[in-house]
Structures are given as structure tokens and as C-alpha cells.
Design a protein that fits this description.
Largest sheet: 7 strands, parallel
CATH architecture: 3-Layer(aba) Sandwich
CATH topology: Alpha/beta knot
CATH superfamily: SPOUT methyltransferase, trefoil knot domain
Number of strands: 7
Number of domains: 1
Radius of gyration: 16 Å
Strand order of the largest sheet: 3-2-1-6-4-7-5
Strand content: 15-25%
């Protein structure tokens, strides 16, 4: 089994017993990603690509977030949904409560603009970490923000006040990776 695949190979990959064994042996970073009501299926698919890129432990799709199998998610993810562990949770708040008890020392970091946010590259990331991203219009829910251990944001220098959810997550994920190495 090839350890790295290009987009064409990923798109055409059919799950097999060998690939499931390989998937189970992959070394994962203690990074968890929570999608708090992220609705755009292309964002969701792209987040799967990001999760694969950093070898994240798991993606949690919450609330109104669509789940695989979904043709648009599959297309945007280039089939990385087959390689990244994921789970659906109806409630982001219940998920956070459960993860706090389940995973020792897990820190919940919301990526959002807030009165308590700090610049993303000024935060001291340590694994295990759970990054929470929110809805494309309304952001991370107020309740999830209150449960987060910290809130980080990416400074904006132009007229637009925010970045796409997937882009923001990508920037913070690679900051986590560089901080943890």
C-alpha cells in the first residue's frame, strides 16, 4: 500500500481490507476538530483535507453540518473522508462536555473573533488540542465559546472582517503543528 497518494489516486481509491489496516496504523496527532454547525459542504470537504494534512486524530461534525457520504463533501475532500476518522454529534455542547471527560488534558480552542480572543500566533498550543470552528455566517456559537478554554483569531488588515472557515482553520492548524514540534 502506497503511503502517500496524489489527488487522482485518492479520488479513485476504493476502500479495501488492506487500506483499512493501513488507516488503523497511521500515526495521528492529538488534534481534534469540531465543526459547530458548519453548513457549506465544500468547507466541510476541505476541512477533511486539512485534517488529513496534519494527521488529525478526529473530526466532529455537529448540528446542521452535513456528513459523508455526500457527493460535494467527497469532491472537496478528494476522498480523504475515507482516511480521516470522523463522527457526527447532534449537539456541539454535549460533544465538548463528553470530550472533556474522555480525553485527559484536552484544551478547547475556538477560532473566532471575540472580546476574549487573542492573536492566533500568540497562543501557546500544546497537544492534545481541540479546535472549534463555526458557522460561515454566525461563527462559533455563544455557548461553545463559553465552554472554550481560549479563543484565538486571525488579524484582518483589509476591509473584510473575516476569513473563510476552512482558511482560518488551516492557518491555526499549521501554527499548532509548528508550536508542537
Amino acid at each position: 500500500m502506497e503511503t502517500k497518494m496524489n489527488a487522482a489516486a485518492l479520488r479513485s481509491h476504493q476502500p479495501s481490507a488492506a487500506s483499512r489496516q493501513f488507516k488503523n496504523k497511521l500515526v495521528r496527532n492529538e488534534i481534534y476538530i469540531v465543526l459547530d454547525n458548519v453548513l457549506d459542504t465544500y468547507n466541510i470537504g476541505s476541512i477533511f483535507r486539512l485534517a488529513d494534512a496534519v494527521s488529525a486524530k478526529k473530526v466532529y461534525l455537529c448540528g446542521g453540518s452535513a456528513t459523508p457520504p455526500n457527493a460535494r463533501i467527497k469532491k472537496a475532500s478528494i476522498n480523504t473522508t475515507e482516511w480521516v476518522e470522523w463522527e457526527y454529534a447532534g449537539s456541539t455542547l454535549e460533544l465538548i462536555r463528553n470530550l472533556k471527560f474522555k480525553i485527559k488534558n484536552l484544551k478547547f480552542i475556538a477560532i473566532e473573533q471575540s472580546s476574549r480572543s487573542i492573536q492566533y500566533n500568540k497562543f501557546g498550543y500544546k497537544m492534545p488540542v481541540c479546535l472549534i470552528v463555526g458557522n460561515e455566517t454566525s461563527g462559533v456559537s455563544k455557548e461553545a465559546l463559553e465552554m472554550a478554554d481560549a479563543v484565538v483569531e486571525i488579524p484582518m488588515y483589509g476591509v473584510n472582517i473575516s476569513l473563510n472557515v476552512m482558511v482560518s482553520l488551516g492557518i491555526v492548524l499549521y501554527q499548532v503543528m509548528s508550536s508542537s514540534r
